[in-house]
């Protein structure tokens, strides 16, 4: 589910751990690396709650997500009963789902990356591509912006020529006090804003300062949103060799 | 019953001897109502079912130990239709799948056929599973599901494809042992040693199944080969799949040698799977299933030799999905459609409306199985806990 965190975050890249908030730096890449190191670490194991909400209904899922580096992640749904035990394994760009009630492992087609993850505003692509997005984007500062009385550093992420990403441009609003993102805006090829991720409730978890509450909302579905809350996060874990395998997915 | 007692003993032993054990349960209850009818071509011979109702429920338990687990599933299904009152064989086609345990060593089923209903009470799953670093061993009654086919999946000889099942998450079980060896993260082998499949249930001697399966993943390819002895015949086949561009392509072939009661049979299929847009998923399957000669009604899964199938799923809303499926027989021009629309009323309760029937047919060209296809209209509900 690092997956998810990555998803949500910006998909910055490197797995290296920056020492402190590079608030004086004029290099946008350093900000990106720092945020990534805080939110991602070299590996992580998180318990999350996802809510999909409209004014009429709300659906809640409890999720356990493990991520190692940029290429490996495994996610299991722990609640509700209807989906309990369902799992998703990602190894680089390959992905499998596990259906526990049938005891069946299903290979997922590459285009399934487009589909919504469990009906939420996050897609499988968010999960899969998140780790590579940092490498696939150029980063540069735009002019600072004020929002709700606070000044934010704006970093524009534009996709590199040969990168295979869905979002050609992402604008990330960093709070200069902690160098962590507060808003991420995703634009399509036409330059139109498609969806916005809002990050808040900065807390320290296992030594990492991270936003623990996120809201994803599409511009064309203003009455619907998906929230994600980090209940716990453990970082820099030495997972066993078996953690990110089909054997473990079908356990 | 000795086998059952042994499993209960193992459960008890595990639960009470291992402080690290963890017991959990879950299940579902559901039901469906539908009307069914078919052309009045020969009502005495093939009467129309008219209406059909079904309630079902399951309770599953799981005891997780350190490196082992014990799982069970108790299943009840009660089907009612006026056609059960008759002795006409077409009533056998009402309940699908009729048999929920297909390779049986121990009779843990209670079936009852009375006036206008049939009921099945059974232990649908009861297995002990132990796992070591590279080996997983499972003993008892369990589900065997693999293969990418949704409408037709000949590479899996143990189970019907569940793309057309009305009850969600239903599977056919087998008795025996499954040993999986995980050679590395890209290669594994499975040995199945099971009881025999017996459609007739007339106490014919057990003729065991022993099949070996190997899976190898290389880059975007996956190869699966399987072969061995099953149903008193040799079976060999495999599946190859490839992720390319936005597609998942897959092909299967399965050969079954001649058996004491049936000719040799060959099945093959080819499929393509793609997510067209975020809410729209599409799948094409082209199937060939050889039909036995000299049988009035084939017992094979499909009602024709050649099938072209188009299955789609569209998410209208996070709570609403529609699933239209079309199957076409290029020989008789039979076009059969299935339409489902599901609505999640709560997190664990969903209802589904469904309809199916011939959209185009030529009665002069149809085979007997095709003549027996019904037009159905119904509603289903299922609650998970």
Describe, in plain words, how this protein is organized in 3D.
The complex is a heterodimer of chains A (about 250) and B (about 375). Chain A is mainly beta. Helix content of chain A is about 15%, strand content about 45%. In chain A, strands 6-5-4-3-2-1-13-12-11-10-9-8-7 form a 13-stranded antiparallel beta sheet. Chain A is globular. Chain B is mainly beta and about 375 residues long. Chain B is globular. Chain B starts with a helix and ends with a strand. The mean pLDDT of chain B is about 85.
Distance between the termini of chain A: 18 Å
**What is the overall shape of chain A?**
globular
Report Rg of chain A.
Answer: 17 Å
The SS-based structural class of chain A is mainly beta
Helix content of chain A: 10-25%
Give the strand tally of chain B. 20
- Helix % of chain B is under 10%
Order of helices and strands of chain A: HHEEEEEEHHEEEEEEEH
Uncertain parts of chain A: 1-18
